[in-house]
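Hi team,

As requested, here is the filled-out complex form for the flavin-adenine dinucleotide run. I kept the field names the same as last time so the parser does not choke. Let me know if anything looks off before we queue the next batch.

— J.
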Amino acid sequence: MKHRLVILGAGYAGAAVAGRLARRLHADEVDVTLVNAEPDFVERVRLHQVASGQELRHRPLRDMLAGTGVTLRVARVTAVDVDIKTIALTGADGADELGYDTLVYALGSSLDDHGVPGVAEHAHEVASRPGALRLRERLGQLAPGGRVVVVGGGLTGIEAASEIAESHEDLEVAIAVRGGLGDWLSPAGQRHLRSAFGRLGITVHEHTDVEQVGATGVLTGDDGALPADVTVWTAGFAVHPIAAATGLEVSARGQIVVDGTMRSVSHPDVYAVGDAALADGPLGTPLRMSCASGVPMAWQAADSIAARLTGGKLPSTPLGYVHQCISLGRRDAVIQLVTADDRAKPAAPGGRLAAGYKELICKGAVYMAAHPLPYPVRRRRVVRSSAPAGVRVKSAEVPATKG
Ligand SMILES: Cc1cc2nc3c(=O)[nH]c(=O)nc-3n(C[C@H](O)[C@H](O)[C@H](O)COP(=O)(O)OP(=O)(O)OC[C@H]3O[C@@H](n4cnc5c(N)ncnc54)[C@H](O)[C@@H]3O)c2cc1C
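And here is what came back:
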């Protein structure tokens, strides 16, 4: 009986787990199934580009997975039962159920409205492809001088405001930021960001809390208002409520709490990666929701699962950061160098070269999702037990095969 490995979500993290596991294990011993709501891979880190009118390359998951042995199931996950180990799905053929022996949860995240009234009814977003496409259409309908307010001064807000201002020069773009603009960046990074926003004509409203979104703008905490024909909400990501409904241990934000091997701290047959998981980084600070965390988390999870199934050595490399790459339109970017636990170092190169580097990073992220083990490895045999479930998870560690 084959071991059933089921991965939920084919974003950067889930696709990488599936492909890496399939390359590490033998297809006659394991079934690797990847479930995703859409048939295409969505380059989420480029959705602000989509919203600004750019076309992205079409990336069917079937092509990405060709030759890997991974089975793709295009269906929406509606529930996960970790006690009887089943997933409820709805697809083109209606409702269905899928059983698993080991589950990897990688359903990512969506917009977080933080309970602010009016976001759902009036705000646009770039956290999902349908949202980015709707925003694109709306921006295209605005007359010259149309006002766009981007709410949120994190990486996504900065990238979205820059991209919209660059591609729609005739619109008035503003950004509302809770603290100071880019205040987590080094002085050099902040200088570059301010000068880019000045060049792009973006009005910055700092220390501005948006308390309500309406059809004609936003209301701010100081009894002020920012008029807007389009409000773009980028104030954070939230995890799908399915995670919290599973009975798995989750954080206050609903992320599945995992250990250093990306294994659920409450359910050893479940792993979680990407935005949906809460893992500690260096010095115990939680990894931030990002592609920069999701891909290494995926490698860690896949290698840990493979090691546990085959009696190999668990990976022990700690996850950490090198830089934050922030695009400022297509011709500019700032690369903020950071410590392993994501604190800004002094250096923050910017400009055209930085924009080229950021482009490489985006291309690299897709490449790593499609080629999560770019070097050849010797596949390892699972350690079988006499139990009908088929595979015993061996806790003793033996030396791993190199690569
Ligand atoms: C505009 C924008 C710019 C960004 N820029 C950067 C950046 O420069 N650098 C960086 O590190 N991060 C960036 N991020 C964040 C980054 O995109 C996310 O952290 C990353 O996509 C998380 O990867 P993931 O695999 O966990 O989730 P996702 O990429 O969101 O993938 C989740 C997958 O699960 C599928 N799914 C969701 N729900 C269901 C369901 N119920 N059933 C079946 N399938 C489902 C989705 O279709 C999707 O394929 C950006 C995000 C945005 C929105």
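Two things worth flagging: The domain at 113-235+321-372 is CATH 3.50.50.100 (FAD/NAD(P)-binding domain). Residues 9-14, 35-38, 42, 44-45, 47-48, 76-77, 106-109, 126-127, 155-156, 159, 240, 274-276, 289-292, 294, 325 surround flavin-adenine dinucleotide (CB under 6 Å).

Thanks,
J.
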